[in-house]
Protein backbone atom coordinates (compact mmCIF):
# COMPACT_ATOMS: atom_id res chain seq x y z
CA UNK A 1 0.00 0.00 0.00
CA UNK A 2 1.21 3.51 -0.75
CA UNK A 3 -0.14 5.44 2.25
CA UNK A 4 0.40 8.81 0.55
CA UNK A 5 -2.18 7.94 -2.11
CA UNK A 6 -4.65 6.62 0.45
CA UNK A 7 -4.94 10.21 1.78
CA UNK A 8 -7.39 12.44 -0.07
CA UNK A 9 -5.88 14.85 -2.59
CA UNK A 10 -6.32 17.78 -0.19
CA UNK A 11 -4.46 16.11 2.67
CA UNK A 12 -1.61 15.26 0.29
CA UNK A 13 -1.03 19.00 -0.18
CA UNK A 14 -0.88 19.92 3.52
CA UNK A 15 2.45 20.85 5.04
CA UNK A 16 2.75 19.20 8.49
CA UNK A 17 2.14 21.57 11.41
CA UNK A 18 5.39 22.24 13.28
CA UNK A 19 4.60 22.71 16.98
CA UNK A 20 6.93 24.36 19.50
CA UNK A 21 9.63 21.89 20.57
CA UNK A 22 8.83 20.09 23.85
CA UNK A 23 11.00 20.88 26.90
CA UNK A 24 11.92 17.21 27.54
CA UNK A 25 13.20 16.79 23.97
CA UNK A 26 15.55 19.79 24.26
CA UNK A 27 16.73 18.68 27.72
CA UNK A 28 17.72 15.30 26.32
CA UNK A 29 19.21 16.60 23.09
CA UNK A 30 21.51 19.11 24.82
CA UNK A 31 21.97 17.38 28.20
CA UNK A 32 20.38 20.30 30.06
CA UNK A 33 18.68 20.27 33.50
CA UNK A 34 16.59 23.33 32.92
CA UNK A 35 14.89 24.47 29.74
CA UNK A 36 12.52 27.42 29.27
CA UNK A 37 9.83 27.16 26.61
CA UNK A 38 8.96 30.47 25.00
CA UNK A 39 7.59 28.93 21.84
CA UNK A 40 3.87 28.20 22.06
CA UNK A 41 2.30 31.32 23.56
CA UNK A 42 1.23 29.49 26.70
CA UNK A 43 0.55 31.28 29.97
CA UNK A 44 3.87 31.45 31.87
CA UNK A 45 2.00 32.18 35.13
CA UNK A 46 0.27 28.79 35.02
CA UNK A 47 -3.49 28.56 35.48
CA UNK A 48 -6.09 29.75 37.95
CA UNK A 49 -5.98 27.93 41.31
CA UNK A 50 -9.79 27.74 41.19
CA UNK A 51 -9.58 25.88 37.88
CA UNK A 52 -6.96 23.48 39.26
CA UNK A 53 -9.16 22.77 42.28
CA UNK A 54 -12.15 22.09 40.01
CA UNK A 55 -10.08 19.52 38.12
CA UNK A 56 -8.99 17.81 41.37
CA UNK A 57 -12.59 17.56 42.50
CA UNK A 58 -13.59 15.81 39.30
CA UNK A 59 -11.37 12.75 39.65
CA UNK A 60 -14.18 10.52 40.99
CA UNK A 61 -16.30 11.18 37.91
CA UNK A 62 -13.87 10.59 35.08
CA UNK A 63 -15.43 7.21 34.21
CA UNK A 64 -18.49 9.08 32.92
CA UNK A 65 -18.87 10.70 29.49
CA UNK A 66 -18.90 14.49 29.53
CA UNK A 67 -21.91 16.61 28.63
CA UNK A 68 -21.87 16.58 24.83
CA UNK A 69 -22.71 20.27 24.35
CA UNK A 70 -20.82 21.63 27.39
CA UNK A 71 -24.00 23.16 28.78
CA UNK A 72 -22.58 24.58 32.05
CA UNK A 73 -19.63 26.12 30.25
CA UNK A 74 -21.89 27.60 27.56
CA UNK A 75 -24.18 28.95 30.27
CA UNK A 76 -21.22 30.62 31.97
CA UNK A 77 -20.06 32.14 28.68
CA UNK A 78 -23.56 33.29 27.92
CA UNK A 79 -23.71 35.24 31.20
CA UNK A 80 -20.25 36.66 30.78
CA UNK A 81 -20.54 37.72 27.13
CA UNK A 82 -24.26 38.41 27.03
CA UNK A 83 -24.89 36.06 24.12
CA UNK A 84 -27.48 33.32 23.80
CA UNK A 85 -26.24 29.81 24.62
CA UNK A 86 -27.58 28.76 21.20
CA UNK A 87 -25.01 31.04 19.60
CA UNK A 88 -22.08 29.20 21.21
CA UNK A 89 -20.31 26.02 20.12
CA UNK A 90 -17.50 24.52 22.22
CA UNK A 91 -14.55 22.55 20.92
CA UNK A 92 -11.39 20.70 21.83
CA UNK A 93 -9.42 23.94 21.87
CA UNK A 94 -9.91 26.68 19.28
CA UNK A 95 -8.26 24.15 16.95
CA UNK A 96 -11.18 21.80 17.53
CA UNK A 97 -13.69 24.56 16.81
CA UNK A 98 -11.83 25.34 13.56
CA UNK A 99 -11.95 21.68 12.56
CA UNK A 100 -15.65 21.40 13.29
CA UNK A 101 -16.32 24.59 11.36
CA UNK A 102 -14.21 23.40 8.42
CA UNK A 103 -16.08 20.10 8.24
CA UNK A 104 -19.34 22.02 8.24
CA UNK A 105 -18.67 24.68 5.63
CA UNK A 106 -15.96 23.64 3.16
CA UNK A 107 -17.07 22.25 -0.21
CA UNK A 108 -14.88 21.40 -3.18
CA UNK A 109 -15.86 24.36 -5.32
CA UNK A 110 -15.36 26.90 -2.54
CA UNK A 111 -12.67 29.52 -2.07
CA UNK A 112 -11.36 30.67 1.30
CA UNK A 113 -9.32 33.84 1.63
CA UNK A 114 -6.47 33.51 4.10
CA UNK A 115 -3.71 36.08 4.73
CA UNK A 116 -0.23 34.95 3.77
CA UNK A 117 1.29 35.26 7.25
CA UNK A 118 -1.13 33.86 9.78
CA UNK A 119 -2.05 30.84 11.88
CA UNK A 120 -1.38 27.80 9.64
CA UNK A 121 -4.33 25.69 10.72
CA UNK A 122 -6.85 27.60 8.57
CA UNK A 123 -5.28 26.53 5.31
CA UNK A 124 -4.68 22.95 6.52
CA UNK A 125 -8.35 22.52 7.31
CA UNK A 126 -9.53 24.07 4.05
CA UNK A 127 -7.13 21.84 2.11
CA UNK A 128 -8.08 18.70 4.04
CA UNK A 129 -11.69 19.33 3.02
CA UNK A 130 -10.51 19.99 -0.55
CA UNK A 131 -11.52 23.62 -0.64
CA UNK A 132 -9.32 26.21 -2.41
CA UNK A 133 -7.04 28.48 -0.41
CA UNK A 134 -6.79 32.00 -1.85
CA UNK A 135 -3.78 33.69 -0.29
CA UNK A 136 -4.05 37.37 0.47
CA UNK A 137 -0.83 39.37 0.56
CA UNK A 138 0.31 41.26 3.64
CA UNK A 139 0.80 44.98 3.99
CA UNK A 140 4.31 44.74 5.47
CA UNK A 141 3.65 42.57 8.48
CA UNK A 142 -0.04 43.55 8.86
CA UNK A 143 -3.07 41.91 7.31
CA UNK A 144 -4.13 43.85 4.21
CA UNK A 145 -7.91 44.13 4.39
CA UNK A 146 -8.11 45.91 1.00
CA UNK A 147 -6.29 43.01 -0.62
CA UNK A 148 -8.71 40.57 1.02
CA UNK A 149 -11.68 42.52 -0.37
CA UNK A 150 -10.13 42.54 -3.86
CA UNK A 151 -9.84 38.75 -3.81
CA UNK A 152 -13.53 38.11 -3.20
CA UNK A 153 -15.16 36.19 -6.09
CA UNK A 154 -18.46 34.36 -6.67
CA UNK A 155 -16.84 31.31 -5.16
CA UNK A 156 -15.65 32.90 -1.92
CA UNK A 157 -17.28 31.19 1.00
CA UNK A 158 -15.32 32.52 3.95
CA UNK A 159 -12.46 34.76 5.05
CA UNK A 160 -10.14 33.76 7.89
CA UNK A 161 -9.08 36.80 9.87
CA UNK A 162 -6.82 36.38 12.88
CA UNK A 163 -6.94 39.47 15.09
CA UNK A 164 -4.55 39.98 16.87
CA UNK A 165 -2.61 38.01 14.34
CA UNK A 166 -0.27 35.10 15.00
CA UNK A 167 2.73 35.08 14.31
CA UNK A 168 3.03 38.85 13.89
CA UNK A 169 1.39 39.85 17.18
CA UNK A 170 -0.19 42.99 15.78
CA UNK A 171 -3.86 43.86 15.59
CA UNK A 172 -5.60 46.20 13.19
CA UNK A 173 -7.19 49.32 14.70
CA UNK A 174 -10.82 48.63 15.65
CA UNK A 175 -12.22 51.26 13.24
CA UNK A 176 -10.30 49.69 10.32
CA UNK A 177 -11.76 46.29 11.22
CA UNK A 178 -15.28 47.78 11.31
CA UNK A 179 -14.79 49.39 7.91
CA UNK A 180 -13.52 46.12 6.48
CA UNK A 181 -16.34 44.00 7.93
CA UNK A 182 -18.95 46.43 6.56
CA UNK A 183 -17.57 45.89 3.06
CA UNK A 184 -17.70 42.09 3.11
CA UNK A 185 -20.90 40.87 1.40
CA UNK A 186 -23.13 39.33 4.04
CA UNK A 187 -23.33 35.90 2.39
CA UNK A 188 -19.59 35.46 3.07
CA UNK A 189 -18.61 34.17 6.50
CA UNK A 190 -15.85 36.06 8.31
CA UNK A 191 -14.08 33.82 10.79
CA UNK A 192 -12.44 36.11 13.34
CA UNK A 193 -9.91 34.23 15.41
CA UNK A 194 -9.56 36.14 18.67
CA UNK A 195 -7.29 33.72 20.53
CA UNK A 196 -5.28 36.70 21.86
CA UNK A 197 -7.98 39.35 22.14
CA UNK A 198 -7.67 39.57 25.95
CA UNK A 199 -4.14 40.95 25.54
CA UNK A 200 -5.10 43.68 23.05
CA UNK A 201 -5.52 47.31 24.06
CA UNK A 202 -8.87 49.07 23.75
CA UNK A 203 -8.17 50.73 20.35
CA UNK A 204 -7.36 47.31 18.92
CA UNK A 205 -10.44 45.55 20.27
CA UNK A 206 -13.15 45.68 17.60
CA UNK A 207 -15.86 44.35 19.94
CA UNK A 208 -16.75 41.75 17.37
CA UNK A 209 -19.38 40.11 19.61
CA UNK A 210 -21.24 43.41 19.84
CA UNK A 211 -21.05 43.78 16.04
CA UNK A 212 -22.38 40.27 15.62
CA UNK A 213 -25.26 40.89 18.04
CA UNK A 214 -26.10 44.16 16.32
CA UNK A 215 -26.85 42.31 13.08
CA UNK A 216 -23.58 41.24 11.40
CA UNK A 217 -24.54 37.60 11.58
CA UNK A 218 -21.93 36.55 9.01
CA UNK A 219 -19.30 36.75 11.77
CA UNK A 220 -17.98 33.66 13.48
CA UNK A 221 -15.80 34.55 16.45
CA UNK A 222 -13.34 32.02 17.82
CA UNK A 223 -11.73 32.19 21.25
CA UNK A 224 -9.66 29.95 23.47
CA UNK A 225 -8.95 29.33 27.13
CA UNK A 226 -5.38 28.30 26.26
CA UNK A 227 -3.86 31.75 26.50
CA UNK A 228 -4.90 34.27 29.15
CA UNK A 229 -6.75 31.57 31.13
CA UNK A 230 -3.76 29.20 31.06
CA UNK A 231 -5.67 26.04 30.10
CA UNK A 232 -3.67 25.01 27.00
CA UNK A 233 -3.23 21.48 28.34
CA UNK A 234 -6.92 20.77 28.96
CA UNK A 235 -7.98 21.89 25.45
CA UNK A 236 -10.93 24.26 25.46
CA UNK A 237 -12.11 26.80 22.93
CA UNK A 238 -15.40 28.18 21.67
CA UNK A 239 -17.04 29.81 18.68
CA UNK A 240 -19.82 32.38 18.58
CA UNK A 241 -22.03 32.64 15.53
CA UNK A 242 -25.43 32.44 13.93
CA UNK A 243 -27.67 29.90 15.75
CA UNK A 244 -28.37 28.00 12.53
CA UNK A 245 -24.66 27.71 11.75
CA UNK A 246 -24.01 26.55 15.31
CA UNK A 247 -26.62 23.81 15.04
CA UNK A 248 -25.08 22.67 11.72
CA UNK A 249 -21.63 22.58 13.35
CA UNK A 250 -23.08 20.50 16.16
CA UNK A 251 -24.15 17.89 13.58
CA UNK A 252 -20.52 17.11 12.76
CA UNK A 253 -18.86 17.94 16.07
CA UNK A 254 -17.72 14.72 17.77
CA UNK A 255 -20.26 14.37 20.59
CA UNK A 256 -17.72 13.97 23.41
CA UNK A 257 -14.80 16.00 22.06
CA UNK A 258 -14.65 18.33 25.07
CA UNK A 259 -13.66 16.46 28.23
CA UNK A 260 -15.51 16.87 31.53
CA UNK A 261 -12.20 18.14 32.93
CA UNK A 262 -12.05 20.89 30.31
CA UNK A 263 -15.68 21.86 30.87
CA UNK A 264 -15.34 22.11 34.66
CA UNK A 265 -11.97 23.86 34.50
CA UNK A 266 -13.41 26.30 31.97
CA UNK A 267 -16.30 27.34 34.19
CA UNK A 268 -13.91 27.86 37.10
CA UNK A 269 -11.34 29.74 35.01
CA UNK A 270 -13.94 32.15 33.67
CA UNK A 271 -14.97 32.91 37.26
CA UNK A 272 -11.44 33.79 38.31
CA UNK A 273 -11.17 37.37 37.13
CA UNK A 274 -8.25 37.97 39.46
CA UNK A 275 -6.01 35.47 37.65
CA UNK A 276 -6.98 36.89 34.25
CA UNK A 277 -6.09 40.42 35.42
CA UNK A 278 -2.86 39.27 37.01
CA UNK A 279 -1.76 37.62 33.74
CA UNK A 280 -2.63 40.73 31.76
CA UNK A 281 -0.83 43.15 34.07
CA UNK A 282 2.28 40.99 34.30
CA UNK A 283 2.32 40.43 30.53
CA UNK A 284 2.15 44.17 29.90
CA UNK A 285 4.92 44.80 32.41
CA UNK A 286 7.15 42.20 30.72
CA UNK A 287 6.33 43.58 27.29
CA UNK A 288 7.74 46.93 28.38
CA UNK A 289 10.87 45.17 29.62
CA UNK A 290 11.23 43.45 26.22
CA UNK A 291 10.81 46.74 24.36
CA UNK A 292 13.47 48.47 26.44
CA UNK A 293 15.97 45.62 26.00
CA UNK A 294 15.30 45.40 22.25
CA UNK A 295 15.69 49.16 21.88
CA UNK A 296 19.04 48.96 23.65
CA UNK A 297 20.10 46.16 21.28
CA UNK A 298 19.08 48.24 18.27
CA UNK A 299 16.67 45.60 16.99
CA UNK A 300 13.23 46.08 15.49
CA UNK A 301 10.07 44.25 16.50
CA UNK A 302 6.33 44.33 15.92
CA UNK A 303 4.48 46.14 18.74
CA UNK A 304 2.52 43.31 20.30
CA UNK A 305 -1.17 43.02 21.14
CA UNK A 306 -0.57 39.48 22.38
CA UNK A 307 1.61 37.53 24.85
CA UNK A 308 4.41 37.08 22.30
CA UNK A 309 6.73 39.33 20.30
CA UNK A 310 7.98 39.00 16.73
CA UNK A 311 11.57 40.23 16.59
CA UNK A 312 13.71 40.88 13.53
CA UNK A 313 17.13 39.48 14.47
CA UNK A 314 18.70 40.63 11.20
CA UNK A 315 20.34 37.20 10.85
CA UNK A 316 19.22 33.64 10.03
CA UNK A 317 16.45 32.88 12.52
CA UNK A 318 17.04 29.14 12.33
CA UNK A 319 20.62 29.63 13.53
CA UNK A 320 19.33 31.83 16.38
CA UNK A 321 16.76 29.17 17.28
CA UNK A 322 19.33 26.37 17.27
CA UNK A 323 21.87 28.31 19.32
CA UNK A 324 19.28 29.45 21.87
CA UNK A 325 18.39 25.80 22.49
CA UNK A 326 21.96 25.18 23.61
CA UNK A 327 21.32 27.83 26.28
CA UNK A 328 18.13 26.03 27.32
CA UNK A 329 15.67 28.36 25.60
CA UNK A 330 13.08 27.33 23.03
CA UNK A 331 11.59 29.98 20.74
CA UNK A 332 10.03 29.79 17.27
CA UNK A 333 12.12 30.59 14.20
CA UNK A 334 10.29 32.71 11.65
CA UNK A 335 11.52 30.56 8.79
CA UNK A 336 8.47 28.31 9.21
CA UNK A 337 6.24 31.38 8.80
CA UNK A 338 8.10 32.69 5.75
CA UNK A 339 10.03 35.25 7.84
CA UNK A 340 13.66 34.10 7.60
CA UNK A 341 15.21 36.66 9.97
CA UNK A 342 12.42 36.90 12.55
CA UNK A 343 11.89 34.95 15.74
CA UNK A 344 8.65 34.69 17.68
CA UNK A 345 9.17 34.74 21.43
CA UNK A 346 6.47 34.07 24.01
CA UNK A 347 6.79 36.42 26.97
CA UNK A 348 7.92 34.57 30.08
CA UNK A 349 8.13 35.46 33.75
CA UNK A 350 10.59 38.24 34.53
CA UNK A 351 13.27 35.74 35.54
CA UNK A 352 12.80 33.82 32.28
CA UNK A 353 12.90 36.99 30.23
CA UNK A 354 16.16 38.09 31.86
CA UNK A 355 17.65 34.69 31.01
CA UNK A 356 16.34 34.98 27.48
CA UNK A 357 18.10 38.29 26.91
CA UNK A 358 21.35 37.07 28.45
CA UNK A 359 21.36 34.12 26.05
CA UNK A 360 19.99 36.05 23.06
CA UNK A 361 22.79 38.64 23.22
CA UNK A 362 25.44 35.90 23.26
CA UNK A 363 23.73 33.98 20.46
CA UNK A 364 23.55 37.03 18.20
CA UNK A 365 27.30 37.48 18.57
CA UNK A 366 27.92 33.80 17.73
CA UNK A 367 25.60 33.79 14.72
CA UNK A 368 26.94 37.10 13.38
CA UNK A 369 30.54 35.88 13.73
CA UNK A 370 29.79 32.64 11.90
CA UNK A 371 27.99 34.62 9.16
CA UNK A 372 31.05 36.88 8.80
CA UNK A 373 33.26 33.80 8.62
CA UNK A 374 31.09 32.22 5.90
CA UNK A 375 31.12 35.49 3.92
CA UNK A 376 34.92 35.73 4.22
CA UNK A 377 35.29 32.14 3.02
CA UNK A 378 32.89 32.77 0.13
CA UNK A 379 34.81 35.85 -0.99
CA UNK A 380 38.02 33.82 -1.00
CA UNK A 381 36.24 31.55 -3.42
C1 LIG B 1 -4.34 32.34 16.45
C2 LIG B 1 -4.56 31.05 17.14
N1 LIG B 1 -5.72 30.43 16.97
C3 LIG B 1 -5.98 29.26 17.58
C4 LIG B 1 -5.03 28.65 18.36
C5 LIG B 1 -5.33 27.32 18.96
O1 LIG B 1 -5.72 27.46 20.30
P1 LIG B 1 -6.16 26.20 21.14
O2 LIG B 1 -5.06 25.90 22.08
O3 LIG B 1 -7.41 26.66 21.86
O4 LIG B 1 -6.45 25.08 20.20
C6 LIG B 1 -3.79 29.26 18.55
C7 LIG B 1 -2.77 28.61 19.37
O5 LIG B 1 -1.65 28.99 19.50
C8 LIG B 1 -3.55 30.49 17.92
O6 LIG B 1 -2.37 31.10 18.03
Counting helices, strands and paired strands, the structural category is alpha/beta
How can the largest sheet be summarized?
A: 7 strands, mixed
Radius of gyration: 22 Å
The SSE string, one letter per element, is HHHEHHEHEHEEEHEHEHEEHHHEEHEEEH
Treating each run of at least 4 consecutive H or I residues as one helix, how many helices? Answer: 15
Q: Unreliable stretches, pLDDT < 50, 5 or more residues?
A: none
Record field, number of beta strands? 15
Determine the N-to-C terminus distance: 48 Å
Helix content: 40-55%
Shape: globular
Q: Average pLDDT value? A: 95
Strand arrangement in the largest pleated sheet: 2-10-9-8-7-3-4
Portion of residues in beta strands equals: 15-25%
Small molecules (ligands, ions, cofactors) in the structure: pyridoxal-5'-phosphate
Amino acid sequence: MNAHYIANSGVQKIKPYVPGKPIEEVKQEFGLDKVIKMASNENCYGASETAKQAIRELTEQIHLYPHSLSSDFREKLSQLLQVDTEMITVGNGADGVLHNLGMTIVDQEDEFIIPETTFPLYSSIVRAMRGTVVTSRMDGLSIDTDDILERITDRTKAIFFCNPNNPTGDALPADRVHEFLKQVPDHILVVIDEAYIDFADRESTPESIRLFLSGMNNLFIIRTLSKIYGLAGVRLGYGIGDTELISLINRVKPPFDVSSIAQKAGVAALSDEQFRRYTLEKTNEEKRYFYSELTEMGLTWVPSQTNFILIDTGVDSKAVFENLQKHGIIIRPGKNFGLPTHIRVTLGTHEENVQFFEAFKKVLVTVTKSNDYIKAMDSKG
